[in-house]
Amino acid sequence: MKPILTFKAFSKNAALVTALIGSAVFFNSCKNDIDNTSPGIAALSIINAYPSTNTLDFYIGGQRLNNTGFAFGGKIDYFTAYEGTHTSKVTLNNSATTLANKSIPLKAGVYHSLYLVGAAADSVQYLLLDDQISQPAAGKAHVRFINLSPNTTDLSLELTGDTTGFKNKAFKGFTNFKPVTAAKSSFVLRNAANGVVATRDTVNLQNGKIYTIYAKGLATGGTDATKLSIAVSLHQ
User: What is the value of pTM for the model shown?
Assistant: First the structure.
């Protein structure tokens, strides 16, 4: 069965938490008359953390998801697709040069994030995560940390007022989502050998929102555009 790809913009996290339930009801009710074994609905977001100045194209089931070149640090917000295993492909933008050709398993009723990562000039790796989405308590935001820098040692993320929650993650290592105070915050990346390796000032973590903070880029050998830095991704 071909995937059903429906692009949505979720303006509120309450909608984000409940949207898949509504999607599943809608799609199943439309198919009840012809198919009593309708597959469930999953959601997927794509994040380009592959440190290259070349833009990419991303395909699922032969359908290109990006309208323009998919740049380093770019993101495709959640869209819905049927559960099951989907074929996917990453190419250079407007090119037949393939950097990845992999299957993506999607679970019904689950939000997923797919991170495009790696350091090789001719190969993209995947990191597929199940996003444990839940509504933050009043006055809180939810944050997780992922190390997506392919040539660093273990990294730790420190937030203003919280220096203990996101420690010692190797490449592709990640934390669970953690509640933090919703406020303007500064971020620091550290490793054991060199201390502070990147900073980012004055990020407004909004009440009720859900974020992934990730290390992206190259610790050595990159350009200004692909050097090690801190990225902030809002789940929507």
Answer: 0.87
